[in-house]
Amino acid sequence: MGVMKRVSTIFRAKASKQLDRLEDPRETLDYSYQTQLELLQKVRRGVADVATSRKRVELQMNQLQQTADKLDRQARDSLAAGREDLAREALSRKAGAQSQLTDLQTQYASLQGEEEKLTAASQRLQAKVDAFRVRKETIKATYTAAEATTRINEVFTGISEEMSDVGLAVQRAEDKTEQMKARAGAIDELMASGALTDAIGPPPDDIQAELDRMGSSQGVDAELERMKAELAGGAAPKEIGSGQADSSVGQPGGTNLQKEQPGSGGA
Amino acid sequence: MIIRIMGEGQLKLDNSAVDELNKLDSDLEKAVEANDEAAFGSALQGLLAKARVLGVALPPDAIEPSELILPREDATIEEVRDLLADGGLIPG
């Protein structure tokens, strides 16, 4: 006996065990209908939970994309300022953010698939529950024990199979949503701490702080140069002198050499 | 004959189509027994693809038991084993 037949046999055995539990088949129908309504509620909650989870992932994807863009800009700015070390740092963090993003994109697609399937399952179940209610009333109205038992058996086994299938799907969706919640929480923490990539050192805010400092010191330098030029009554090129105050950045020598290249456009 | 693909719904298919499914199903069973993930994946996908081609969807309000039940498309070997052991079925 193959897999398909064995699974079907097990589903049937489970249904018939439930049927045997109650004496009056009509009770079975009413009881089953109650369980169907409960399951229907559960499936709808499941759909809503998956949707919430998917939206959260979507939000995080946007945040990560913004972070990656910001790190990219920071890398460019660093490079333009001759700070290859900072640019390298920013780019390596960008790679970290990007890999989280790729990961989330996969999760997103899988949640989307789950949501679609569960929505379809919920609609199928709704249609079956409605049909069941009608058949249940018909069977009860025309009830004669002998005849009813076979009809009830058929309809009960059918609905029970559907409920097992849908029940498993909901359970699965719940597990997935829980996993996603945990992941999303971890990523939120990472974002909040600023350390998007592990073990890479101080949070990215350091890069921004350093850039800001350089930016402001360059601004002061440029201002000074302009003033000097005004005082001298000439129009000296702005870039030339900007290297002179570079010692304030903390890296004399190397940076000075880079800064003195004409047309680097640092200011 | 009515079959179910778990997570997707039920399909109606000709009895002659079942022979084709049975062949693929025995590959699936062997893969589960041998615990061969790769063979399992391709056997399951092959089986489901065939069933979808040969079958016609049952109306959603039909309430009928299935002759055959196929695992859902992204099921793992363990999940199928659970199904076969009845451990995967939720009570109620």
Outline the structure in words.
Chain A is an all-alpha fold and 267 residues long. Chain A is built from 7 helices and no strands. Chain A starts with a helix and ends in an 8-residue tail after the last helix. The longest helix of chain B is centred in the N-terminal third of the chain and has 20 residues, at 15-34. Chain B has 3 helices and 4 strands. In chain B, helix 1 runs antiparallel to helix 2. By secondary structure, chain B is an alpha+beta fold. The model of chain B has no long low-confidence stretch (mean pLDDT 90). Helix content of chain B is 50%, strand content 14%. Chain B has helices spanning 15-34, 37-54, 77-84, and strands at 2-5, 9-12, 56-57, 68-70. The chains are: A mainly alpha (267), B alpha+beta (92). The A-B interface holds A 2-8, 10-15, 35, 39, 117, 120-121, 123-124, 127-128, 130-132, 135, 154-155, 157-159, 161-165, 167-169, 171 and B 3-4, 6-9, 21-22, 25-26, 28-29, 32, 47, 59-72, 80, 83-84, 86, 88-90, 92.
Summed up, what is this model?
The complex is a heterodimer of chains A (267) and B (92). Chain A is an all-alpha fold.
Average pLDDT metric of chain B: 90
Apparent shape of chain B: globular
H and E order of chain B: EEHHEEH
Determine the number of helices of chain B (DSSP H or I, runs of at least 4 residues): 3
The count of strands of chain A amounts to: 0
The largest contact between protein chains, plus residue counts on each side, is:
A-B, 40 and 36 residues
Instruction: Give a quick account of the main beta sheet of chain B: strands, pairing sense, barrel closure.
Output: 4 strands, mixed
Characterize the biggest β-sheet of chain A: none
